[in-house]
Structure formats: structure tokens, C-alpha cells
Amino acid sequence: MIKVGIVGSTGRMGKHLIKNVIEDDALALAVVHVFDELKETLPKETLVTNDMEKVVEVADVIVDFSAPAATEALCEAVLKNPTPIVVATTGFTPHQQNLLAESAKVAPVLYSTNMSVGIALLKQLVEDVSSKLRDFDIEIVEMHHRHK
Prior knowledge:
It is built from five helices and six strands; from the N terminus they run E-H-E-E-H-E-H-E-H-E-H. By secondary structure, it is α/β, with parallel strands linked by helices. A six-stranded parallel β-sheet has the order 3-2-1-4-5-6, with helices on both faces. The longest helix has 16 residues. The mean pLDDT is 91.
């Protein structure tokens, strides 16, 4: 079983991740990082902590759908204890971007500003269409629901 850690566990995506990890027999929800109280029901063996170094110590892989400050703390912990991370946080300062790049030198890092399958498909379609419509100006506007 792969021991998964989740950073950003109280957000919308974090809640979805918790549910999906619990339902997957190949995964174990080893640890969740919280700043505040977590209202989700978790397996009794899941560690709930605000100590990012503990998150990195316990998990085989960490999925981060949090905020820049939490990702910064995660990267600092990964630099001390290399652990693979998946990061889907946006809005980084240059310093935080550098920390993420430094983390990638010591551990596997998957970073994407959008994990949506639809957006990945849209990007591919735009590349295909724009290569055929060279004289066209194309603009794409990304809109989000009010809870993002």
C-alpha cells in the first residue's frame, strides 16, 4: 500500500482527495496536514497534524492542494527529508517558486496549476487548432465558480 499524505485537507479538493484515497484499496491515508480543525471522519490510523515535517516523515507521497504558505513549509520539509510531492497550488512568490524548484532537485515533484482533465484536453485542442489557423488571434478566458 502507498501511504498518502494530504496537505490542504480542509479545502474542496482536499476533501475529495480524502474520500478517493480512503476508497482506493491500493492506498492508505497515512497523514493529513491541517491548520484548523478537520471535520472529516478519517480512518483511525490516519495521523492528523499541523507539523509539516511529520507529514513528510510519515507519507510515501504527498498531494498538496493548499495555499502558497503551506506549500512553502512542505518544500522546506522535503528539502530535509526527500519525499515525492504532487503540488496543485498557485499564486507563488518568486521565493516559493525557487523552493519548489529546489525540492525537485532532491525528490520527484509533479507541479501543475490545473489538474483538470478537461483543461489538459483543451490545451491540446488549442495547440492543434492554432497550428492550423496561423492567421487567427485566439483568446481563451478561464472562469471559476465563486468558491475557488
